[in-house]
Amino acid sequence: MSNITRQQATRACQNCKKGQTLFEMVIALAVVVLVITGIVKAVTTAIKNSTFARNKSEATRYGQEALEWVKTERDKKSWSNFTANVGNLTTSSGVCMPTLVFPTSSSSCDTSLDSNKIQNAIFFREIKVLDEGTSSCTSSDTSCNITVEVFWLDGETTHTSTLETRMTNWR
């Protein structure tokens, strides 16, 4: 056996104390994992909120587009022709209008059909035209309430942007 001096043994033991213990490494790794998890959660939430805000803004734009279309239709025609054309839009549940053309029938949007979506978009649009109550708007009415709902599905959640206005027989 070799003879190890006391001085050599002390130096060897001091070199052992300079490294990290396994316990310290596990704690440091746990802290790093927690920090990274927090950052990923914050970024994921920010992206989700940004996507929702963009979709809400776009849905509102589609709703405004529909209100402007109805206003233009009212201005192009006489009040009696306008109210005759909006006759199919006078349901309490709303009429699905993926395109801005007077529908030939009144049915609400079936979200399982892509044909009910606004073209090149994830949105569905429903329009309701009623008198001051819950009945249809006729030529004898002096005004009609227009409600446009644009909605989209986000997983299991349905989000909606609703706009309302009143059209009058201003002529």
Task: Give a brief outline of the structure.
Strand 3 and strand 4 (157-168) form a beta hairpin. This protein has helices spanning 6-16, 22-76, 79-85, and strands at 95-96, 123-130, 143-154, 157-168. The chain is of the alpha+beta class.
Question: How would you describe the overall organization of this protein?
Answer:
This protein has 171 residues and is α+β, with helices and mostly antiparallel strands. The protein is 43% helix and 20% strand. It contains 3 helices and 4 strands, in the order αααββββ. A hairpin with a 2-residue loop joins β3 and β4. α2 crosses α3. The chain is rod-shaped and about 115 Å long.
Explain the layout of strands and helices.
Elements: H1 6-16, H2 22-76, H3 79-85, E1 95-96, E2 123-130, E3 143-154, E4 157-168
Antiparallel strand pairs: 1-2, 2-3, 3-4
How many beta-strand runs?
4
Overall structural class, as computed from helix and strand content, comes to alpha+beta
How is the main sheet built?
Answer: 4 strands, antiparallel
Beta strand %: 15-25%
Radius of gyration: 33 Å
Number of helices: 3
- The side-by-side strand order for the widest beta sheet comes to 1-2-3-4
Morphology = rod-shaped
- Which percent range fits the helix content? 40-55%
> What gap, in angstroms, lies between the N and C termini?
116 Å
The ordered string of helix (H) and strand (E) elements is HHHEEEE
- Average predicted local confidence, pLDDT: 85
Low-confidence stretches: none
